[in-house]
Amino acid sequence: MKMKKIEIKRIDWIDTLRGIGMFLVIWGHVFPTNKWRIRRYIYSFHMPLFFFISGLTFKDSDKLSFKDYLKKRIKGLIIPYLAINIVCYIIWAVLFHYNIVIDFDALDYFFGIFVSHATLVPCAGSQTWFIITLFISEIIFYFLKKYSTNDFNLGICVSISGLIGYVISVSGYNDPIPFHLNTVFTAIVFYYLGYLFMKYINKFKVIFNNKMIMLISGGALGIIGFITQFFNRRVSMYSNLYGSFVLFYISSLCTIIALIIFVNLFMKKSKFFKGIGQNTLFYLGYHYSFILVVLYLYKKIFTTNLGMLGLSIVLTIFMYPFALLVKKYIPILIGKVNIKSLN
Questions:
Q1: pLDDT tens track for 248-282
Q2: pTM as predicted
Q3: I want to staple 336 with a disulfide (CB 3.0 to 4.6 A). Which of 58, 145, 197, 331 is the partner?
C-alpha cells in the first residue's frame, strides 16, 4: 500500500525564520567558549526556535496512519542524519590527517553515529543530534495528538512532559546521552507550542494586519526575551541545561515570537534567508567542518565579537552555492534519495 501523499505548500515566512535560525546556529558555533555573552544569548532560544518551527508544519501529518507517518519521518530525518554523519566522518578523517583537527577516534566516532551521541561524534553529532531528538519528539507527539480527545488534554500531556524534562535537568542529568533522550521531554513542549501557534494563527490576525501593533509587540517581546535571559544561567538544550524553569520559557518564547513578528514585518520574502531555510540540512550538517577549516587558516583574525559575526556572515554566504549544487547534483550527501520502499 502506497503512502498517502500530502502536499504541503512552503510558507515563505517559515522558511525565512528557519534560515535566520540556521544563521544563529552558525554564529553560536563560531564562538570558541561559553564565556561570550552573545553566544549565551543565542543559546537561550535558538534550539527551542527550531523545535517550535518544526511544530508549525505538523498540521497535516496527523492525517497519516502511523506506518505512513513513520516512513515519512524516516525518509525526511533518519536517512539524512545517517548520510550527513557518514560523509562528515570521512571529512573529519581527512581533517585529522592534515592536523586541522587534533582528535579523531575512528571507532568511537563511528559507534557514536548510530546512538546519536554528540560527545562521541563532534564531526557532525554536535549539530545533527537535533535531527534524532526531533524524530523521537515527533513520534511521541504523533501519539499524544492522536489519542488526546481535545487540545486541553493534549496540553496537559505536554505540560507533564515539560515538567519531566525540567526535573531531569535539575537532577543533574545534563551530559549528552544516547539519542539525547533527556532533551526530548523539553523539545516536545516547543514542538507543541509551534503546532498550537500555527493552528490558531488566524486568531493573531489583529496583530499581523497592523504594522504598528506588530512593531510595538515585537519590540516589547524582544526586549523582555533579551533582558530575562541575563537573569538565568547559561541555557543549552544540547546539554539539557535550562536554569530557571520560568525564566527559560519566558525568555525563549518571547524571543521566538518577536522573531516571527519581525520576519513577517520586514523579511517575509527574503530570498537569501528563505534559500537557507530551504537548505537547512546542508547547513546543519556541514557548517562545522567549514568553521574548523576557516579558523585553522585564519584563527588570529576572528578573536572579537565583530570578527565572529563577520565570520558567520561570510560562512553563511560562502556555503550557499555549495548547498544549491549539492541539492541539485549530489542530493545523497544530504540524504535526499529516492528509495522505493519508502514511497
A1: 999 999 999 999 999 998 887 789 999 999 999 99
A2: 0.90
A3: 331
Q: And the C-alpha cell for 256?
A: 521566538
| Domain ranges across the chain | 12-342
Rounded CA-CA distance 143/137 in Å is: 10
pLDDT greater than 90 at residue 1? no
SS3 state of residue 124: coil
135 pLDDT exceeds 50?
Answer: yes
| φ/ψ of residue 241, rounded to 5 | -115, 125
Ramachandran sector of residue 163 (left: φ over 0; alpha: ψ -120 to 50; beta: rest): alpha
Which long-range contacts link 139-144 to residues 24+ away (Cβ below 8 Å)? 139/70, 139/73, 140/184, 140/188, 141/55, 141/58, 141/188, 141/191, 141/192, 141/195, 142/61, 142/62, 142/66, 142/69, 143/66, 144/188
- At 142 the three-state DSSP class reads helix
